[in-house]
């Protein structure tokens, strides 16, 4: 086996010409292999890498354009919103000036309406009181009449006997019969 330092330190050692074989010296063969691989990658990968970079560049430019358009749209919306704000502020000032007189007018209207409502409620109350008085008076009249009738019936029942009762009934029947014949 060869010593690794032989190929670096002893420049005079060369393998025989005309022999074919694998070089197992890793340090000697790696730079050659790496340069070949890098050369192939640069040659064939240059187009792929430039396509990837171009696509990325196009996406970035598109994003920048979209951002600019959105910024311009936002500026327009801000200007419209500021104009609307100024308009609303002027209307608010106008309403504030006119509002005080309208509020006073509405207050007077409300007071008048409340006065009218109170008068109506007072009239309804008086009518209800009058109705209740009439109802109570009628109930008292009915009770007095009922008590008077009960007293009269009691007096009649205590004073009437069977004979007097029969004579009264016969007299009444006679009166009804006479009235019926007149018709």
Automatic annotation (TrEMBL):
Protein keywords: ATP synthesis, CF(0), Coiled coil, Hydrogen ion transport, Ion transport, Membrane, Plastid, Transmembrane, Transmembrane helix, Transport
InterPro entries noted in UniProt: ATP_synth_b/b'su_bac/chlpt
GO function terms (MF aspect): proton transmembrane transporter activity
A cellular component annotation (GO) from this entry: proton-transporting ATP synthase complex
Positions of transmembrane segments: 32-53
Function as written in the Swiss-Prot or TrEMBL entry: F(1)F(0) ATP synthase produces ATP from ADP in the presence of a proton or sodium gradient. F-type ATPases consist of two structural domains, F(1) containing the extramembraneous catalytic core and F(0) containing the membrane proton channel, linked together by a central stalk and a peripheral stalk. During catalysis, ATP synthesis in the catalytic domain of F(1) is coupled via a rotary mechanism of the central stalk subunits to proton translocation.
Full protein name: ATP synthase CF0 B subunit
Organism for this UniProt entry: Huangtcia renifolia
């Amino acid at each position: 086996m060869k010593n690794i330092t032989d190929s670096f330190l002893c420049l005079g050692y060369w393998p025989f010409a005309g022999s074919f074989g694998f070089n197992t010296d890793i340090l000697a063969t790696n730079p050659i292999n790496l340069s070949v691989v890098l050369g192939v990658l640069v040659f064939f990968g240059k187009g792929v890498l430039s396509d990837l970079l171009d696509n990325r560049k196009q996406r970035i430019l598109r994003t920048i354009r979209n951002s600019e358009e959105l910024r311009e749209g936002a500026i327009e919306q801000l200007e419209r919103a500021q104009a609307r704000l100024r308009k609303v502020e002027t209307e608010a000032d106008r309403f504030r000036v006119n509002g005080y007189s309208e509020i006073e007018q509405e207050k007077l209207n409300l007071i008048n309406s409340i006065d009218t409502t109170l008068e109506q409620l007072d009239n309804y109350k008086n009518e209800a009181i009058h109705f209740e008085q009439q109802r109570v008076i009628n109930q008292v009249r009915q009770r007095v009449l009922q008590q008077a009738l009960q007293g009269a019936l009691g007096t009649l029942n205590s004073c009437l006997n069977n004979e007097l009762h029969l004579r009264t009934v016969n007299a009444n029947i006679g009166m009804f019969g006479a009235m019926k014949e007149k018709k």
